[in-house]
Amino acid sequence: MGTMATNRRYGDGCAIATALDHVGERWALLIVRELLLGPKRFTDLQDGLPGAGPKILAQRLRELEGNGVVRRRTLPPPAGSQVYELTEWGARLDAVVVTLGRWGQGAPEPSGEHVGADSAMIKMRGLFRPRPDRPWTATYEVRLGRHRFTIRVVDGRLAEMSRGEPQGRPDTVIDTDPDTLDRVVGMDSTVLTGAIDDGRLTVTGDGRAGRRLFDAVRVEQGGGPDRATDSGTQGRIRATRPVS
Questions:
Q1: At 233, is the pLDDT very low, low, confident or very high (cuts 50, 70, 90)?
Q2: Residue 60 three-state SS
Q3: Is the dihedral of CA 175, 116, 86, 130 positive or negative?
Q4: Rg of the chain's alpha carbons, rounded to an integer?
Q5: Dist CA 79 CA 20 (whole Å)
Q6: CA geometry: angle at 117 spanning 43 and 58, to 5°?
Q7: pLDDT tens digits, residue range 207-219?
Q8: Burial class (CB in 10 A: 0-12, 13-18, 19+), 118
Q9: d(Cα 205, Cα 170) in Å, to the nearest integer?
């Protein structure tokens, strides 16, 4: 296994330095972030990383592939397109990227820049806390503009979060944009209520399941779960007919 095609190696035997030799170049970890929820075509990676030009993106992908972090494969017919995906070793960066994101949330001067669809979903997944005291089972479709994601919760535990629509009919559909979802996730119920009232976020289908999902991704206040959600959003997230 090689290291990045660059002379900027640390020359340090520490495992941290070795890791940075493999994924420390600019855009490398963001490429990993974009692949955490499933494979992507080159054009999809460009869409998720608009700040990286095609030449730089192609170079980083070659380096990550050479380092055993990323691999290419061709989808079976009728698609037949080439996609990039994480190797088994590369997928072990999942917890690293999520933890780095949590650390970044505490930055003295938050970015305030646009947040991509995958970023918002990964934040949601990273904040999810099982609720054995309030178990529920539901399938969700999350619509972020043209992007679609599936969430499955089984007995109060996150069983799946992946790119693409659910195979069957979801219990609940959440429709918003990446920036709104990023702002709502982890915050108290008043932020969710405001997004619903403003029409920036809609929840259709099983309203109770929708409330429980947002409860599970709320940062605890004062050392305990935020109990305000049911009263704060009860009238905003309503049960409707099953979505089609």
A1: low
A2: helix
A3: negative
A4: 19
A5: 35
A6: 30
A7: 999 999 999 998 7
A8: buried
A9: 8
Helix (H, G, I), strand (E, B) or coil at 194: helix
How many residues are recorded in the chain? 244
| Cα(30)–Cα(48) distance, integer angstroms | 9
Extended beta strands in 23-169, E state? 70-74, 82-86, 138-144, 147-154, 157-163
List, in sequence order, every residue forming a beta bridge with 243; answer none if it has no partner.
none
Give dist(CA 195, CA 181) in Å, integer: 9
For tokens 């490398």, what's the residue?
Answer: 28
Task: Give me the percent of the chain exceeding a pLDDT of 90.
Answer: 70
CB 120 within 8 A of CB 130: no
Q: In sequence order, what are the residues at sequence separation of 6 or more whose Cβ sits closer than 8 angstroms to the Cβ of residue 28?
A: 4, 22, 60, 63, 64, 69
Tokens of 67: 């380092």
What is the distance of C-alpha 241 from the center of its chain? 28
pLDDT band, residue 134 (cuts 50/70/90) = confident
62 falls in which pLDDT band (50, 70, 90)? Answer: very high
